[in-house]
Amino acid sequence: MGKSTRVRYQLFLPAGLSERFEALAARPGASKSALLAAALEAMLERRGGDELEQRFAVRLDRLSHQLARIERDGHVQIESLALFVRYMLTVQAPVAEGDEAARAIGRDRFEAFVQQVGRQLAGGRSSLAPEGSE
Fold this sequence. Notes:
This protein is mainly alpha-helical. It has helices spanning 15-25, 32-91, 100-123. The protein is rod-shaped and about 100 Å long.
């Protein structure tokens, strides 16, 4: 709607709001019509923003919950690994300096461990899942 096509409205305002409106409209360069049009436009624009926010709020909440779950799972995994390493370091005796056979067995076991982790990750499997649920 352009300036040439205007519609007349009759409004009723509370006394306090009317006084504030009159004072604002009395300023140089201000008009009641322009003030009301600007206020209504701002309200309608803001409401459009609220609708957009409401449409995305559900999805953002869902993503926030998923991220929180991932973060929690990461903490569980790190804590589990730390406890396992601490346990293994306190239970296992260190390998003697000259025991090359034991060192070779340790290297082989570590290599097998790394390969198993790679296979698990490549296959999308989890060792935390119960047996037979893969």
